[in-house]
DNA sequence: AACCATTCCAACCGCGGAGTA
DNA sequence: CTACTCCGCGGTTGGAATGGT
């Protein structure tokens, strides 16, 4: 209790000192950015409070650190979150929860703030639309057993499209439709006849997670992993899921694309050149297409 | 064109841990 | 061991941008 009072007192004093120093709050100006960039270019980052003073910035050390790490850093990756990144965020969040900085470590060039914002604005939005609590088991299961496999499908479809630009999209579309039908039926079966128990579900989930962790962490290993879509795990089959081993998705197709497009060498999923080939999916930022959303709503309706 | 609602993201805040004198 | 400072994290907010009526 005394400690709390002391901390509050210290903060009050700090706040007064900040006022006396005419510290600036709010949006950064171009001049401030230049000062910060130039100072760090010469002296390096760290020791943020003294850095703020020495650089002649009327900002708190915290503010300088935030501006640098979330905006000015040269290796910041701009643009929309890619499908692979979405998949990774979903997977890592299912394992670590709101450990944004930890998740961000596995997404080169992305900041914890960006991932946090993505989660709050996109994922939580979808949960809200589905009238489902984002922390509920139902929603988590949906992410793992529907959204993530769906993302893998879309990634593969995109990969296939670039592998054979001249091939028709009809085959891919037909395959996706078929797979969706299978997934939909399986999920509906789960909802109507909940043959799985919390125990076997957690086993399957853990197995899937472990498998992913073993092969994906660190994230650069994504290039070699085989992603189990959660319905069925080869070395720990759970008949209650009734999903066939053949549904396992080989993730290795991502290997050529995952990092290359960061440097602009390889494929860029957001390039307008590829958009028409991707089954009408908006790869720019949507976690789910309208079609997916309708599909999910239908699945949820089984439970209502 | 004007207004309102929603989305998105940069920035801030409070807290707790690590380091140090 | 204590007091203090600094740093980093996760949660929250404010306002610009965008979309809808």
TrEMBL record:
<feature type="domain" description="Myb-like">
    <location>
        <begin position="73"/>
        <end position="123"/>
    </location>
</feature>
<keyword id="KW-0805">Transcription regulation</keyword>
<dbReference type="InterPro" id="IPR001005">
    <property type="entry name" value="SANT/Myb"/>
</dbReference>
<feature type="domain" description="HTH myb-type">
    <location>
        <begin position="22"/>
        <end position="72"/>
    </location>
</feature>
<protein>
    <submittedName>
        <fullName>Uncharacterized protein</fullName>
    </submittedName>
</protein>
<keyword id="KW-0238">DNA-binding</keyword>
<keyword id="KW-0804">Transcription</keyword>
<keyword id="KW-0539">Nucleus</keyword>
<feature type="domain" description="Myb-like">
    <location>
        <begin position="20"/>
        <end position="72"/>
    </location>
</feature>
<dbReference type="InterPro" id="IPR017930">
    <property type="entry name" value="Myb_dom"/>
</dbReference>
<dbReference type="Pfam" id="PF00249">
    <property type="entry name" value="Myb_DNA-binding"/>
</dbReference>
<dbReference type="InterPro" id="IPR009057">
    <property type="entry name" value="Homeodomain-like_sf"/>
</dbReference>
<keyword id="KW-0677">Repeat</keyword>
<dbReference type="InterPro" id="IPR044676">
    <property type="entry name" value="EOBI/EOBII-like_plant"/>
</dbReference>
<feature type="domain" description="HTH myb-type">
    <location>
        <begin position="73"/>
        <end position="127"/>
    </location>
</feature>
